[in-house]
Amino acid sequence: xxxxxxxxxxxxSLSHQLIKVGRLINERGLNSVRDVFNLPELKQSHLDxxxxxxxxxxxxxxxxxxxxxxxxxxxxxxxxxxxxxxxxLKIDPEDSRSKLVFFQTSGFYSIQKGFEKLVSIxxxxxxxxxxxxxxxxxxxxxxxxxxxxxxxxx
Length: 154
What we know:
Layout: H1 3-11, H2 14-37, H3 44-47, E1 58-59, H4 60-67, H5 71-83, E2 87-92, E3 95-103, H6 107-129, H7 131-153
Antiparallel strand pairs: 1-3, 2-3
């Protein structure tokens, strides 16, 4: 297969295009969050932990289990995030050998600000596609998410 045939296949692949636009949106969002919070050292690996941390605190081992990675890798990332003042650790009242990971007081505020950046990207997409096409695309992608989440459970 030559390079132009491969490029044509990629351009004709909805899966590839969804991955590519997802990556571009993600990069834009990450750069925006770095700027808003003055955290140039913030990496995608830091943001990847957010969905696995409860506002009431979560142990490192539980985060690792939820994410499907080692406790060592979570510990390293949590340590970096505590230095950036995104997270803090507190001794688990139920197990003094364990520590719970919490968002800093501003954690919820920060997540809201990050979500505002996503909304601004949504506006850009809506302006480009038009409101009707935007809504239709959103419905179709939401439907695909349901399909893949259902498939994952099997």
